[in-house]
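step=encode ok
step=design start
structure_in=
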């Protein structure tokens, strides 16, 4: 029997000592009522909450779980390096090994720099673009997420206009809107940011149009600016290379994170020789940026990426999840929208503008052991099996039945609606 008594008690304690009780993208304030906030174990495809409830996890820690939690080869590499050294006065030789590995795998990359978070990597890209020719204006797509620092955070608290004074916004996948933004920047264009595909929260995902991607490359070249692909979320889930290699466009810079160490804290900025001098002239650092254990985990993760069919397996499992859930929904009288790559599935209900169907469905599935998101893209990991999908469908079938029976009484999330209106 599902219970969340311990989770509620932890929330009460947290509210006394942590502002808001919890913060950041892993706060469950926007999730359906009762979603667990605290977890005690993760293994393979599953997570266990503070009350001992176990879930098939389709959020994968919001992306870092690429190969499966506690992957044995990655864990062995971590243990070997922990016995030697981790955070020290300088980096271990692994920093060179890891840079060489990434340069050998990513077609546009001639060099690599390492940090901890996706926000670190995208900010390094921003700084490098501005240092390249001493210009200031940076183009970003409206609604795109590039991290949580003042220049990029989606929430306004603590942010002043000056933090974004030199950002210009354009509509993703619209070459004309991009060209208009470039014109607005004039002679002060430093860089153009793009995501691998449109993956804005609360919205359908949209794969990039080749014309738009080629326009971004052409405009950057014409104005001697740097093109940046933010691969923090999608890296190694669409390709073994930079995600825009799939449409034949190479950036000058790419930001990476989440999956690099299969859960270990490490991110990276990769760049070509055009941007090398600019990257060498920015000052960025952190006491834990050069720790050896995450680099050991990343090296082993990259070996698995190169040597196994992890990607093809995820694509098969993702398509199985998508097609089976669609058929199941139809049988219960619902229509779903699946958008984006099959390895990063976004699942929304048709005719559900206030998310009341999506919220009730995910809440019902959660109480039956499947952790889904009603408003954010999800993630497939390489440890998922057909048996996991079959078990998922047992839970989602019961969830569809529950919301069908209670459809007239379902309520939207007031917190979510207030956020969307803001």
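sequence_out=
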């Amino acid at each position: 029997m599902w219970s969340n008594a311990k989770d509620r008690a932890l929330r009460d304690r947290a509210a006394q000592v942590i502002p808001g009780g919890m913060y950041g993208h892993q706060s469950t304030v926007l999730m359906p009522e009762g979603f667990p906030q605290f977890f005690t174990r993760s293994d393979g495809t599953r997570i266990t909450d503070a009350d001992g409830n176990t879930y098939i996890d389709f959020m994968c820690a919001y992306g870092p779980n690429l190969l499966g939690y506690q992957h044995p080869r990655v864990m062995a590499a971590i243990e070997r390096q922990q016995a030697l050294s981790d955070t020290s006065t300088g980096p271990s030789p692994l920093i060179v090994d890891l840079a060489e590995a990434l340069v050998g795998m990513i077609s546009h990359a001639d060099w690599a720099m390492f940090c901890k978070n996706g926000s670190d990597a995208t900010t390094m890209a921003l700084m490098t673009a501005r240092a390249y020719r001493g210009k200031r204006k940076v183009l970003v797509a409206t609604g795109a997420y590039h991290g949580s620092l003042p220049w990029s955070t989606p929430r306004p608290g603590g942010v002043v206009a000056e933090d974004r004074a030199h950002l210009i916004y354009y509509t993703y996948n619209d070459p004309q809107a991009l060209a208009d933004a470039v014109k607005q920047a004039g002679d002060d264009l430093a860089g153009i940011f793009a995501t691998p595909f449109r993956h804005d929260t609360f919205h359908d995902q949209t794969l990039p149009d080749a014309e738009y991607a080629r326009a971004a490359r052409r405009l950057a070249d014409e104005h001697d600016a740097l093109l940046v692909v933010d691969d923090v979320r999608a890296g190694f889930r669409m390709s073994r290379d930079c995600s825009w290699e799939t449409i034949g466009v190479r950036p000058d810079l790419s930001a990476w994170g989440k999956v690099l160490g299969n859960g270990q804290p490490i991110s990276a900025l990769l760049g070509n020789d055009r941007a090398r001098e600019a990257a060498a002239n920015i000052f960025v650092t952190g006491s834990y940026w050069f720790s050896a254990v995450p680099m050991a985990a990343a090296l082993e993760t990259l070996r698995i990426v190169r040597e196994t069919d992890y990607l093809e397996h995820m694509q098969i499992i993702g398509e199985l999840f998508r097609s089976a859930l669609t058929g199941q929904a139809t049988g219960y009288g619902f229509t779903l929208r699946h958008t984006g790559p099959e390895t990063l599935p976004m699942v929304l209900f048709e005719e559900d503008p206030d998310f009341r169907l999506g919220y009730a469905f995910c809440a019902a599935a959660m109480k039956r052991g499947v952790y889904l998101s009603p408003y954010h893209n999800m993630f497939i990991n390489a440890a998922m099996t057909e048996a996991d999908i079959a078990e998922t469908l047992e839970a989602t079938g019961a969830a569809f039945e529950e919301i069908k029976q209670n459809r007239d009484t379902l309520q939207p999330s007031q917190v979510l609606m207030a956020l969307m209106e803001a």
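step=design ok
step=annotate ok -> The longest strand covers residues 189-194.
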